[in-house]
């Protein structure tokens, strides 16, 4: 179930990546995209699954994941820095716009966080495999690692 949730998110991001790469490479808007089999996001997702996910899943030891984890951390750091730079490079009038209050004032808007909570619930079971592969399996060390990971995420 975890992999399905990740693939839905990756599939959504592949579409955005494909569109931005097309605009960058050709200088044309995405509405002018020619639909070929290799520009289809399902084909890109298949390639990603075969070459990245399958190759990372073949190993019986989770210790091989530390290399891909470093790459993922660098990618997340790059994305964070890019968002901060993009935010501060906007014109001053666009930066100080206040969001409308009517969208968050409704009691029903609290249900918008349900998908995030469900995704987190689905992913928490991976912590068992991570804990079992740790060299130092003391509870205090596990708590420290978990807290540091959450601090880095937020």
TrEMBL record:
InterPro entries: AA_transpt_TM. It is found in: Membrane. The chain crosses the membrane at residues 41-58, 70-87. Keywords: Membrane, Transmembrane, Transmembrane helix. Residues 1-153 form the Amino acid transporter transmembrane domain. It comes from Nothobranchius kadleci (African annual killifish). Pfam families: Aa_trans (PF01490). GO terms for cellular component: membrane. The keyword Disulfide bond does not apply. It is a multi-pass membrane protein. This is Solute carrier family 38, member 8. The gene is SLC38A8. GO terms for molecular function: L-amino acid transmembrane transporter activity.
């Amino acid at each position: 179930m975890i992999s399905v949730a990740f693939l839905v998110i990756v599939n959504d991001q592949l579409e955005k990546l494909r569109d931005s790469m097309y605009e960058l490479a050709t200088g044309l808007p995405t509405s002018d995209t020619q639909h070929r089999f290799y520009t289809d996001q399902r084909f890109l997702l298949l390639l990603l699954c075969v070459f990245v996910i399958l190759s990372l899943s073949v190993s019986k030891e989770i210790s091989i994941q530390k290399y891909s984890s470093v790459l993922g951390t660098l990618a997340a750091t790059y994305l964070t820095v890019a968002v901060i730079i993009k935010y501060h490079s906007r014109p001053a009038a666009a930066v100080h716009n206040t969001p409308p209050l009517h969208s968050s004032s409704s009691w029903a808007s609290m249900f918008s966080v349900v998908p995030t909570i469900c995704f987190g619930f689905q992913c928490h079971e991976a912590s068992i495999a991570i804990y079992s592969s740790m060299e130092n399996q003391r509870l205090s060390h596990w708590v420290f690692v978990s807290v540091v990971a959450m601090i880095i995420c937020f």
